């Protein structure tokens, strides 16, 4: 089960005020295939918190959905200015409310360390369309990814990119 943090309104307000906005990370995520505005349909930002990173995806996708387990975080995300193609839903990272193969991009911006990673990776794999992309953005290297028989390769790629 995912860790439940930043759930109270005070925590959500502090998170909105003091969290480092991942603008630089998003800029680096803007791979060639995402540089044409609205070329892809759906981006999913899992563990979106108060939505700072979620709305940065808006220029690249027809629809962007941020999900979080915390109602207080989602209330904060919704209360702030959002582009019209951005929305939010409450759910755990391991139970995403999307059909199999529906999502073009799954991100978790400084949130994946809270997830039950094997269950989250399985769920991300389920919702991603063939050829879709997953980007786990983090401030740290002390994360090992565990998924099927490619665990070591995933972890090695993360360490190489960092």
From TrEMBL:
This is Si:ch211-93g23.2. It comes from Amphiprion percula. Residues 44-135 form the Methyltransferase type domain. InterPro entries: Diverse_substrate_MTase, Methyltransf_11, SAM-dependent_MTases_sf. SUPFAM superfamilies: S-adenosyl-L-methionine-dependent methyltransferases (SSF53335). Gene3D superfamilies: Vaccinia Virus protein VP39 (3.40.50.150). It comes from the Eukaryota. CDD domains: AdoMet_MTases (cd02440). It holds the Pfam family Methyltransf_11. One of its GO terms (molecular function) is S-adenosylmethionine-dependent methyltransferase activity.
